[in-house]
C-alpha cells in the first residue's frame, strides 16, 4: 500500500504497525553528503532500521549495533540484510535500544547545535579582526 503524504501527527500510527524500516538510497553525491532524518525518526520510534551504506546513513548507523547497513545499489544485499535481521530477532531489543539511545544522546538539539558554536565563534572573531 502506498499511502502518499502522511500528516505528521499520524506518523507514529504508521510506524507502530511496521516490523522495520528500510532506506535503500542510491549512492550519489547527495546521498553521500546529506544525513537523512527518517532513519532517526524510526530509531526514536523503537524500530529496527536497515539502510544502504551511503555516507549519510553511515553517519547514523553502526552496522549490527543500532541498525543494519547493506551495499547501496545492490538488491541482493538488501534482501540478505532483511533476512539477517529477521533471523536475529532475539537481538532486536538491544539493537532497538541502542538506536533509540543514539538519537536521544547524540542527536538531540543541545549536541547538534553545540557542534556549530565553535565554528560561529571562530567566524565572529575573524570578522572582528577584519573590522566587519
TrEMBL record:
From which source organism is this entry? Marinobacterium aestuariivivens
Query: Which Gene3D superfamilies did the record assign?
Result: Glycogen Phosphorylase B
Q: Does the keyword Glycosyltransferase apply?
A: yes
- List, alphabetically, the CDD domains matched: GT4_PimA-like
Q: Does the keyword Ubl conjugation apply?
A: no
UniProt KW keywords: Glycosyltransferase, Transferase
What EC number(s) are associated with this protein in UniProt?
2.4.-.-
Q: What is the name attached to this protein's record? A: Glycosyltransferase
Instruction: Read off the SUPFAM superfamilies from this record.
Output: UDP-Glycosyltransferase/glycogen phosphorylase
Q: Which Pfam families match?
A: Glycos_transf_1
Q: Which residues form the Glycosyl transferase family domain?
A: 2-100
**Which GO terms label this protein's molecular function in UniProt?**
glycosyltransferase activity
Amino acid at each position: 500500500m502506498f499511502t502518499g503524504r502522511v500528516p505528521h501527527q499520524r506518523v507514529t500510527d504508521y510506524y507502530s504497525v511496521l516490523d522495520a524500516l528500510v532506506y535503500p538510497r542510491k549512492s550519489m553525491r547527495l546521498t553521500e553528503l546529506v544525513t537523512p532524518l527518517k532513519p532517526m525518526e524510526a530509531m526514536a520510534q523503537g524500530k529496527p532500521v536497515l539502510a544502504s551504506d551511503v555516507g549519510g546513513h553511515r553517519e547514523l548507523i553502526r552496522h549490527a549495533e543500532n541498525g543494519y547497513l547493506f551495499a547501496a545499489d545492490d538488491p541482493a544485499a538488501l534482501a540478505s540484510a532483511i533476512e539477517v535481521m529477521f533471523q536475529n530477532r532475539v537481538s532486536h531489543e538491544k539493537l532497538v535500544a541502542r538506536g533509540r539511545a543514539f538519537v536521544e544522546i547524540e542527536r538531540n538539539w543541545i549536541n547538534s547545535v553545540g557542534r556549530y558554536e565553535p565554528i560561529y565563534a571562530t567566524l565572529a572573531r575573524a570578522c572582528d579582526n577584519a573590522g566587519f
